[in-house]
Batch of 4 targets.
Target 1
Amino acid sequence: MPGSSAITRITAVDMRYPLPPGAGTDAVHTNPEYSLAVTHLETDDAQSATGITLTLGEGNRLVCNAIEILARPLLGRAIEDLMADFGSVSRQIANDSAMRWLGPHKGVVHLALASITNACFDLWAKARGVPLWRLLLELTPEELVGTLDLSYLEEVLPRQCAIDLIRSHQVSRAEREGILKSGYPGYDTSIGWMAYDDDKVRELTKRALARGFSAFKLKVGSADESRDIRRAHMLRECAGDSATLMFDANQQWNLPTAMRMCRDLAVLRPLWIEEPTHPDDLMAHVELASAIAPVKVAAGEHIPNRVVFKNFLRSGAMHYVQADATRLAGVSEFLTVSLLARRLGLPVVPHVGDMGQLHQHLVLFNHIALGHEVNFLEHIPHLRQHFVHPAQVEGGVYRTPQEPGASLDLVNLSVIVA
Amino acid sequence: MPGSSAITRITAVDMRYPLPPGAGTDAVHTNPEYSLAVTHLETDDAQSATGITLTLGEGNRLVCNAIEILARPLLGRAIEDLMADFGSVSRQIANDSAMRWLGPHKGVVHLALASITNACFDLWAKARGVPLWRLLLELTPEELVGTLDLSYLEEVLPRQCAIDLIRSHQVSRAEREGILKSGYPGYDTSIGWMAYDDDKVRELTKRALARGFSAFKLKVGSADESRDIRRAHMLRECAGDSATLMFDANQQWNLPTAMRMCRDLAVLRPLWIEEPTHPDDLMAHVELASAIAPVKVAAGEHIPNRVVFKNFLRSGAMHYVQADATRLAGVSEFLTVSLLARRLGLPVVPHVGDMGQLHQHLVLFNHIALGHEVNFLEHIPHLRQHFVHPAQVEGGVYRTPQEPGASLDLVNLSVIVA
C-alpha cells in the first residue's frame, strides 16, 4: 500500500436522480425521485471512496447535513486503524450524546451513519485493492466481529458466539465458493411498479423472462383492492406456473386488511407477502404470519436497526429478512443482522436501497462465510448508468464484481466534490 | 372571534438554552444543551402560536429544516377548518410520499411533526380564548377523535371505540373536576442528574422536600454500578421511608445488566425503573418486567409513535406509559396513546420534553375526560425563565394554567421571528 490512507476530506453530497414516469411507485411512495445522500472520502494518498444511503428526494439534504455532523470523528483517521476497531467507532457515532436524541438508531441520523459506514468499507477495500466481498472473506473472525457493534444483543449474540459462528463455517467454505463463478441469482422488481398499467406489466414481464429472470415482484396495496387481485392474476398468467411471485404492499395495509388481502392473494402461491403492514408493528406481523401460513412474510426495508430485527427474528414475525445496508447502519449492521438471522435460522434476502451495488458483495459473504442459503437478490436497474461500475446482471444472475471497493462510485461525483 | 385566524406565516426557529453544569445529564446524554425546534405561526388576525419539540443541541437545526418542509400544507388554512379534520391533516403530513422514507413516523421527521402539531393546538386554543385543557374538555367526542390519526390501531382502537370511551366518562366528569382546583401533583427530576455529586443530590432533595415534593427521580446507569447503588441508598435515606423514588437508566443497560441492577435496586422499593434498556427492545422489556416484579417498568420517552406504543402496551412490556407530546406527533398522538392506554388499563405519566408546560394541560384532560387516575407529572424547572407563562408549581403541585393556549410561548420569540 502506498500510504496509510488517512482521511483528509469528508464531503456530503446531495445527488438526485429523477425516474421515468411511474418507475419506483408503490402504495405509499407515489412520486419518488431516487436520491442518494453520499459520503465522499478523500485520503492523503489520493484514494477516494463513496458511501450511500437512499432517500426519495425531499429530505435528502437533511441526511447530508447529518452526515456532515456525524462523520467528524473520521477525519485524520488512517483507514486500517479505523477499521481495526470499527465496531467501537460505529457505536460512538451512533451514541453521539446529542444526535442520539434524534433517533436513537433510526431515521435521519441512522441513514447518515449508513452512508458514512459504507464509505469506510469502500475505502478499506480499495486501500487493500480488492472487491469488498473478498476483503470481508479474508478477515479473521475476530477482525470481522471487530467491525460490528453488538451492543443490546448480548442475550442472543454475544461476541464469542458471533466469532464461533463464523469459524464453524470456515472449513466448508470451499463448497460454497462456486457461487463466485456461477453468480448470484437475481429477481426483478421493475416489472410491477404501482403506476404501471397492465400492458406495461405484461410487456416488462415478458422481456424479463426472455432475459433469464424467473422471479418477479408486484406492487400491491392499492386503494382499489380489486386492482391488486386482477394484476396479481395477470402476472401469474403472464409469468407462468413455474415463476416465483412476490407481492409487496409497502406497509399500506392495516392488520384486518392485510389478513383479508393475504388470504385472497394466497391462491396465486406467492413466495412471500412483503411489508404487509406498518414496519413498527411487531405483534401485527406475528399475528399475520401465523394466520396466513403457508404464505410467508418478508420485511426489513424499513426496520431501522439490529435491536428491532432481533425482536422480529425471535418472535416469528417474518420468514424472509430484508435487511438493507442503506437503512441499517451500513455494512457493519447489515452483517450483524445477517449473523443474528443465521443464528436464528432465517434467510437474508436484502432490500436494495443501493440498487444491488453493495448488496451483491454482501450476499456472497453471507453465503460463503456464514453458510446462508443462496436465495436471490433484488434487481432494480433504475440508476445503473450513474454508477461507475454498474452491477453486471446477465441471464438473471449477478456476475461477481471484480473491481476494488464496494461498487458504489458514482459518475461525475469526483467532479462535483472537486 | 375577530377573524378566521388563517395561517399566513410559518417560521421554524432553532432555540438553544445552555444549562448549568451537570444539569440534565444522564447515563447516555452527557452534555445536553436543551434546545427547542420551534414552530411559530402567525395569522391574518394577528394571532401567533408556538409549538415545540426538544432536542439536546446538535441536530436541532435538522428538525427545524424538517418543520419548514412538512408545515407547508398549513399555510393559508383557517384554524377552525384545519382542526375540524386534523386527524387527516396529521396523517397526510406523516405520510408525505418522500419525507416518510426518512422515518416512517420516527426520528427527525416525527419530531418536526410534533412541533407543528403543538403549534396548531396552541393556535386553536388561543383563537377560542381558552387554555388548551379547557378547549379539549369542551370538544365533543367526535370532534376530539377527529383530531387523531388512528390508522394502524384498527384491531385495538377503532374510531367508534375511541368515541365511546370518551362518551362513557362524560357523566362522571364532575367527580374529577376537583383536580382543577387542587392542582395536579408533581415529582422532581432535578435532584438527581448523573453528574451531580452526593452533596448536591442531598441538598437538592432536602430543598425539594421543603418545597412540598414527596417523589423524586434519580439517574442510574453509570459505568460504575456501585455508584448507582450508593446514590440510590443515599437518596432513600435523605428522602425518608415514605418518599416515592424512581430510578432512570436512560436506556444504558443491556438486558443481562438490567436484570441484575433492577434486582439490586429493588430493596429500595422504587415505584418504577425507567428506560432500563434500548427503547426499541420490546421483548427485553417484556422479559424484564416479568422477571423483576413487583418492581415496575416505565418507558416512553423514546418510543416514537402510537404503533410502537400499541405493541408495548399490549405485551406487558411496561407498567407506566411515559408518552411525550414532543416525541410523539404532538398533542394529537399523545391523546391517541392516552386513549390506547386507558383502553388497555395502564396509567399515563408523561415524560416532559416540554418541561411540563404542555403536559400540564394534557394530564388534566386525561384525568377528567378519560378517567385516567391522578398520578404525578414530572417537574424540570430548567427552562422556566424562557417561557412567557411558566408552569406554576407550588407545594409540589402544578397549579391549573388559565392563560389561553398551550403555555408554550417563549420569551423573545416574537422579536426573533419579526
Note: The mean pLDDT of chain A is 97.
Target 2
Amino acid sequence: MTSQVLDGVAVAKEILKGVSRRASVLRDAGRAPRLATVLVGDDDASKTYVRMKVNRCSEVGIESVRIDLDAEISTPVLVAQIEALSADPAIDGILLQHPVPGHIDERAAFEAIDPAKDVDGVTRTSFAAMALGNPGFQSCTPGGILRLLDAYEIPLEGRHAVVVGRSHILGLPMGMLLLGRDATVTYCHSRTRGLAEILGRADVVVAAVGTPELVRARWLKPGAVVVDAGYSAGDRGDVEQPAAREVAGWLSPVPGGVGPMTIAMLLEQTVTAAERRAGG
Amino acid sequence: MTSQVLDGVAVAKEILKGVSRRASVLRDAGRAPRLATVLVGDDDASKTYVRMKVNRCSEVGIESVRIDLDAEISTPVLVAQIEALSADPAIDGILLQHPVPGHIDERAAFEAIDPAKDVDGVTRTSFAAMALGNPGFQSCTPGGILRLLDAYEIPLEGRHAVVVGRSHILGLPMGMLLLGRDATVTYCHSRTRGLAEILGRADVVVAAVGTPELVRARWLKPGAVVVDAGYSAGDRGDVEQPAAREVAGWLSPVPGGVGPMTIAMLLEQTVTAAERRAGG
C-alpha cells in the first residue's frame, strides 16, 4: 500500500485563485491590498522565504512593501518600525519574518503588530482567538495544515491527533485547532518519553520540530494521516519520508505539502484584512 | 497501599498567610486591596461561591465590593458595568462569577475586564500569557492546581499528563501550564474514544469536567498523581474517590483539594494587582 498524497501545491493553487479574484475587486476599487514584509538580518533561508512570499503576492495582485533591516538593530527600534506599519493606513498586513536574531525580543516585536493587520497570526490576540475558537487571524502554518486536511475531507472528530513540537506559531496553535475540531490531542516535544509508542497510537500526526526525519516510518500506525511540517536543508522533512509512504494512509510531501499552504494562508488573510479595512 | 493526600486546605492556608501579610502592608499605607465580585442571577451554587470568596477576602484583609445583577440583564449592560469597574481607580481586581446565564455573551463580558485587574485570569490576554509562558494572571483553578502539585514537589517534566476537559478557564489553560512545565500533555473530552486506555497510561491526571465519578478508579495507572477538579452536589468529584485512594499514588480530595487552592490564587492575585497599582 502506498499512501495518498496531501497535495499542498494543488490545494494552495485553488485557494490562490479565490485570493486573486478578491484582490482584483479591491484593485478595481483603487484599494489594492498591500502586505509589508519585515526581514531582520541576512539569513539566507529567511531571505528566500521572504522572496517567495513577495513573488507569490505579485502573482495574485497583492502589492508588497519590503523592509529589510540590519541584523544589529535593537528591539526598541524594530518595535518602533513595526508600530509605524501598524499605524500606516496604506498597509493592510504585516509579516515579520521569523526567527529574528537572538538578541531581539521576538515577542515584543510580534506584539507591536496591530491585531487587525496580523495576517501571519503571531500576536497573543491571534493565538487566543485560535485557541478559544473566536474569530481572528490564524497562525499560517497550522491554519494551512487544517485547510489541507479539510480539502481531503480527513475526519478529525474523536480521532487521536499527536502534535510533535510546541512552538508558539506552529505546534501550540496546531494542537488548539485540532482540539477545536474535537480530536483528542497529545503534545509531544523534546522532553517526551516513549515518543515511538505514542506515535504508534496516533490516527493523525503533525510533525513540527525541524529535526530531519525525527519521526521514523516504523513508529507510525498503518493508515495514519501524517502531516510533515518540517523543512531542513536538502528538502528533508521531519518524517522519514520515502519509508513513511509505505505505512501512512495519507502523507504530505516535502516539498509541496505544508509550505505552499502556509503562503496561501498568508495571502488569503492579507486580502481578508484589506477587505475589512476597505469596508470599514 | 493508600494514596497520599494533595491537601489543598493546608497548602492554601500557607499561601493565605503570605497574602494576609502583604494585604496588611497595603492597608497600613492606606491602600487596602479591593476585589469587585460580579454575580448575575441567583443560582444557588454561584451565590455560595461568591459568598465563600467574599468571606475569605475579609479574613485576609482584602475589601470586597459585591455587585449582584438581575438574571435578565443584557450583555451590553453587563459589559458597561464591568467596564466601569475596569475604569474605577478604587478597584484592584474583578471577578465575574461564571457561568453567567445562557443569553449573555460570556466572552464579551470577560473581555471587558482590564487585564491588569483580571485576577481570575479569564481574559484572552491572560489565557495567551499562560499558554505562551509570558507574565500575566493565571486562571485560578489551573494555576492553583499547579501550585498544589508544586507544594508536594510532584515532578512533571517528561511525565505524561492527561487533562480530561477543555473548558476555557480550566482544562485548556491547565494543559498549557503542564506543557510549560515540560510534561507530555493529552487533552481528552466528551468526543474522546478510549478514555480508559488513555488514562491507564497517564502519570498525572487532572479531571475537570463536572461529571460525578466519570474517572473510574480501575482505569488509573497504579501510583498515578490524580487531581480531582470536579465538584457536584453531595461533595462528589469527577473521580471515583473512595476506590481511587487504593490505586493512585497521590490524590486530591473533594472537598478540600482544588477548591481552596482556587480561592487562594484569586486572593493572592488580587493582592498582586493591588501592589502593582500602588507601585505605579
Note: Chain A touches chain B through 31 residues (CB under 8 Å).
Target 3
Amino acid sequence: MSQSFLPPTRLLMGPGPSNVPKRVLEAMARPTIGHLDPVFVAFMDELKGLLQWVFRSDNTLTLPVSGPGTAGMEACFVNLLEPGDKIVVCRNGAFGQRMVEMSERIGAEVIVVDQDWGRAVDREAVARTLAEHPDARVLAFVHAETSTGAVSDAAALAALAIEHDCLSIMDCVTSLGGMTLEVDDWGVDAAYSGTQKCLSCPPGLSPVTLSERAAEKIRARNYPVQSWFMDFSLVMNYWGGGGKRAYHHTAPVNALYGLHEALLILKEEGLESAWRRHAETHQQLKRMLEGLGIEFVVPEGERLPQLNAVRIPAGIDDAEGRRYLLEEHGIEVGAGLGPLAGKIWRIGLMGETCRPESVTRLEQGLRGLLGR
Amino acid sequence: MSQSFLPPTRLLMGPGPSNVPKRVLEAMARPTIGHLDPVFVAFMDELKGLLQWVFRSDNTLTLPVSGPGTAGMEACFVNLLEPGDKIVVCRNGAFGQRMVEMSERIGAEVIVVDQDWGRAVDREAVARTLAEHPDARVLAFVHAETSTGAVSDAAALAALAIEHDCLSIMDCVTSLGGMTLEVDDWGVDAAYSGTQKCLSCPPGLSPVTLSERAAEKIRARNYPVQSWFMDFSLVMNYWGGGGKRAYHHTAPVNALYGLHEALLILKEEGLESAWRRHAETHQQLKRMLEGLGIEFVVPEGERLPQLNAVRIPAGIDDAEGRRYLLEEHGIEVGAGLGPLAGKIWRIGLMGETCRPESVTRLEQGLRGLLGR
C-alpha cells in the first residue's frame, strides 16, 4: 500500500502555492547541516540580507519565521499587541477577518473598518476611524487581499498610521516580489509574507520585517508575549547576527536553502523587472479573459496583477469546472472563500507561474470548459 | 557575492538535525502541488496513517504541525491549558524548563517537580505532588530530555496522570522512532515530536497526536485557544479527514513529502528493528567512549541510546574541540545547554546517523583530538 509519493505536475494558477522552479527544488535537496553550524550561521546572515533586499528595508529585525504565512502573521500581532491595546483593523476580505480574530484572542480592543469584499480599503474611512480613536496603538491592513484579488494603497495607509502615532502591520503575503512594495519608504512597522506566492518557494516559511519603532514597542511591553515560539525578543537572539546565536528552536534548514535560492533567482531578474513581468502578464490574462466573456470581481484600478478574482462563467459548476481544469488540463485555479465561495475563481499569476505560456495554457483549458 | 548555497557534507552527531537519507531529500525536491489538490488530500490521509503507526496510536487527531518541534510543543500546551488551570511540570532539563515558561505565558498555575539535570524524573516525587494537588488538570513531562540525555519512565508517568485524573502531555521529540514508545498503551493524552531527530527528516515539522480525552478537553474549553495558528479545533477541520478540508493555513507541501518518505523508510525497516538498532549502536558507542576514558553524564539505566551526554575530556576546550571535530573530521557534536554549557557534549546517534560507521568515524575524530 505505502509507496513513495510521486505528485503529478501541475500548472499552479491558484492563490498559492505557485510553481516552484527546479533550482529551488534542487536547493532544498542539498544535504542538511546543523542549524548552529558556523557555515549555516553565515548562510543565515546572507539570507537576512536577501530578505532586506526584497522587503526594501534596512530593518535589523528581518527574518524568516519558521512556519507558514499564518505563523508570521500571528507572530506580528502577538508581539506588537498587548491585552487591552486598541487596534484598528481594515477588513476587506478573509485575511482582514483573520487579523480581527487574532487580535481578539490577544485580548486587544478591536475597531474594524469594514469594506466590501472585492474592494480596496477606503483610506478616508480609515482616517476618520483613527481620528475617532486617538488611543489606537496599531493599524493593521492587507496590502494584497488574497481572498478577493484587491490591492489597497499600503503607502497611504502606512502614512496614516504614522500621522496618528500608531504602529502599522501590513500583510504582504501575496504582494512581496510581485508588485511595488517599499517597507522603509512607506514607513511600515511590521510586514509579513509567505514563500509560496510571488517568491515561488514551497509553503512553510514566513518572511517578516520589523522597524526599530516596532522593536522598541516589543522591548517596552508590560506583559510577556503570549507565545514563546513566536516571541521576537527570543527569536532576535537567534537571528540577531553578530556571530553569536542563542538556541531558540531548530530552524527548518532545507526550506531555508530553498528560500535563499528563490531570492537569488529574483535578484538575477531584478525586483522591478519582476514587478513589471507581473503587471504585463496580468494585462495578457485580462485580454484573454475578456475575450471569453469572463468578468473580474474587482474594479479596474483596484486589481492585483498576480491574483485575479473572476466570476465563475454562467452555466459552469464551481467544483466540476475546477476539477475539469485540474484533471484534463493539469491546471489548478482557486475556489472562492467565505461569502465569495461558489461565486468566484481565483487565478494566480505569481512568481514562476507568471509567464505568457501559463495564460496560453489556461486559455486552452477555459475554451475546453466553455466548449469554444 | 550571492551564489547558490552549497552546504558541506557533515556527519551530524549532535542533538539534531540528524543525517537525512538521500531518498528523503529527493522526495522533498518533487514538484510542489496545491495543498487542497485532491491528490494531496489523499496523500495527507496516508501520511496521517503513517504517523499513527509510528506513534502506536489510533488517535484521530494525529497530524504534523506546520512548524518545528517547539511549535508542536506550544500547540499542545495552548490547547490543553486554560488560564488558571493547574499543571504539574516535571523539570529535569531545558525542555522541562521550556514547558514551565510556556505554561506561565498561558496564565496557568504551574507546580514544578524538579530533578537534577542528567537524571530521570522521579516517579515518587511526581506521585506525591499530584496527591498534594488534586485539582491539577495536566501533567507534563519529557520522555527523552535532549538537553541531558536522560530518559524518564513515560509509561509510569502517564499512568500517574490517569490515576490522578489529569491529562498528560509528553515531549517525545527525541524518542519517537528511536526507542520504545507506545502512546495508546501508555495512555498518553498529547504527544509531540520533531522530524529532525530519529525520523531523519530536515527540521520544520512537528508530529503531534492527541487522545479523545484531550480532544474533549479542547471542545469543552471556556476560553478560545490564545493562538489562532495553533488552535486544534480549527486545524482539525483541515487535517480531519473525510475528504472535505476547510482551509486554515497553507501546509508545507514539500516538507510533508519528506516526512512521508522518511516514515516509509522506517516502516520498511520495522519500528522494533529501528529501536533495536538504536540500542545496539549505543552499546557500541559506549564501549568506544569508555575505551577513550570519556565519561557519561547520566547514570547507566537512565541513559538515552540516541543522545549521549558526556563530560568534555579533560584538557580539551569546549568550542575548540567541537570546531576540530567539525572542520577536520566533518563531524558535528552538540554543546551543552544551560547549566551544562561548557561542561558536556551531546553525541547524537539518531535515525540515519545511528550506524556503526558513525561510531567508527567519531572514534577517529576523538583519537585525533586527544592525540591517541
Note: Chain B touches chain A through 79 residues (CB under 8 Å).
Target 4
Amino acid sequence: ADSAAAEAARARQDSLTKPPGALGRLEELAIHMAGWQRSERPRIETAQALVFAGNHGICAQGVNPFPQAVTAQMVANFEAGGAAINQLCRASGADLSVHALDLDRPTRDFSQAVAMDPEEVLAAMKTGAEAVDPAAQVLVLGEMGIGNSTVAAALACATFGGAPADWVGRGTGSDAAGRARKAEVVADGVARHQAARGLTLLAAFGGREQAAICGAVLEARARAIPVLLDGYICTAAVAPLFDADPALLAHCLAGHASAEPGHRRLLDAMGLRPVLSLDMALGEGSGAALALGVLRAALECHNGMATFAEAGVSGG
Amino acid sequence: ADSAAAEAARARQDSLTKPPGALGRLEELAIHMAGWQRSERPRIETAQALVFAGNHGICAQGVNPFPQAVTAQMVANFEAGGAAINQLCRASGADLSVHALDLDRPTRDFSQAVAMDPEEVLAAMKTGAEAVDPAAQVLVLGEMGIGNSTVAAALACATFGGAPADWVGRGTGSDAAGRARKAEVVADGVARHQAARGLTLLAAFGGREQAAICGAVLEARARAIPVLLDGYICTAAVAPLFDADPALLAHCLAGHASAEPGHRRLLDAMGLRPVLSLDMALGEGSGAALALGVLRAALECHNGMATFAEAGVSGG
C-alpha cells in the first residue's frame, strides 16, 4: 500500500464537512482503498466477484446432512442467476464468475490422509490467480463446497490452536450431534497433520476452493487490488497465508462476521474487523458482496463531499 | 402490518436456495417489509429521505463547541449536494429533501423553561407529516441541529431514567469538560420537567426537528410506510412516541448503532436492533441511508432468488 496516498486521503477526510471521524468505518475503508489504489481519490468502476467451488473427501465421515451433489447443483444455480450471490452482486455492482474445481474428484479425507498433493494445491492456486481480472479495482471472494465448514474448522484449529469444538459450528444444517461429529473429525485431522504450517496446511486439509482463494488473494496482492473476504470458510481459507506471513493479507478486508461461532474467533486471531454483522451464514461471497455496497458508499462520501472551505461551513 | 403477508414472505424465504435462516438479518428485513407493504414480494421503487433541521435554546448553556450558524450552513450544504447524506442517498437511491424549521428562532433553553409551546410542537409535527411522500415505499429519517445531542440525551434520560452522564456523549466535538457540562444541563432539564410524559416531552425539551420526525413517523405509520431511523438524535426524537405507545414505532427499523454511547442503551430500551454498526456519529440520516442499501439487497435476494424446486437443488 502507498502510505502517502493513504495519508492524503486521511487529510481529505478531515477536511470534509463533518466532524473528524464522524463517518467511522467509512473513513477507514476509504483510506484503505486509497492506499492500495495509490490514489487520494480511490474509485470502484470495476468490481469483480469470484466464487470457487470444490468437493471434499471429509464428507465420507458423515459431517454434513446434505449430499455432495448439492455443490454442483448450486454451481448450476449460480450460473443460472438464481442464488443469493447473483442478487447481491447485481445490487452492489460486481461482475460475478464462478469456477468449479474438479467437482467429480473430491479431495482426500483429511482424517485419513493429506487432502491434496502439492501439485493439486498449486494447480488450484493457479486457477484462482488466473481468475483475477487485472482491471478489477476491488475483488469479492466467495466459495461453495458441501463439507467445507469442517475444512474451515480444521484449518483454523491447525493454524491457531484451541479446542476443535470451539471452531465448529452449524455449517449447512448440522444439529448438535453433527457438530460433535465435526469436532471429532477436526481433532483427528489436526492430530494427524500437526507438523503442517503455512501452505502445507492447504495440502493437509484442502480443499481446491480454499487453494483457489489463496491464489486469488496472492494475485490481488501482487496487483495491489483490495480484497473483500467473505465469511468463516473464506477467512479460514487464507489462514495458511496468514500463518506464512500476515502481511500477505494486508490488502484484505473482512466483509462480515458470520453467524458461525468460529468466525469471530478467527477474525480476532487474524486482526480483521468485519464491516457487517448481520447473522448471515451462507457463504458464496454473500457477506463480502453486501459489504461492497458499504465500500462504494464510503467512496461516494470520500469523493463527493464538499470540504469546509468549499461549502463555507464554520469549524473545519 | 399484515401478518399474512409477513408469513407468506417467511415461507418464501424458507423455500429459497439457501439453508433456512442463512441470510440472517436480510431475511428479517424482507419479512418486515412484506408485512408493512402487505405483499409477499415487497419492493422499493420509491425511497424517500427527509432531513429536518432546527436550532436549540439550550446552546445558551455552552453545550456545544460549534456556533448555531452551522445549522443553516449545513442546510445550505445539503441543498448544494455537498454533505455526506447527499452522497449516501445517491448511493442507495433515495430522494432527499431537507426541511429547515425556523432556524432563526431557536427553541427556548430547556434548563430554564419548556422548549416549545404545544402549538409549536404541533406545527413542527405537521411539517414533518406533510413532508412524507405518500408514494414512498420506505422512509429514511435524519436531522441536523447544533446542540441537539444534548436534547437527545435529555429526551432519553427523561423517558427511560438513569444517570444523565450515561446518556451524554461527544456529540459534535465535545471534550470531557463539554460532556460534563452537557450532563449537568440534562440533569437540570430532567429535574425541571419531571412530570412530562409522551408528547409533552417534546414540548419540554424540543426541538422542532424532533417534533417533525415524530410527525413524519406517525404519518408513515398511518400510511404503512416502513421507516429507517438514523442514529442517537433521531432515535431519541421518537422516544416520546415510544413513551406514549411502543406500537406507534412498529414500522420503524434502526438503521445503525451510532458511536454515541447513549445510542445502544436507547436502542436496547426501545427494543430496536440496529442493521449496521460502523462507528458513525454524524446524523443527517447518514446511517439510515446506508442501511437502505442493505434493505434493498435484502429485497433483491427475497424477490430474485430461485426456490429449491425451481433450481433443482436437493435438500429444500
Note: Residues 16 and 306 of chain A are 6 Å apart (CA to CA).
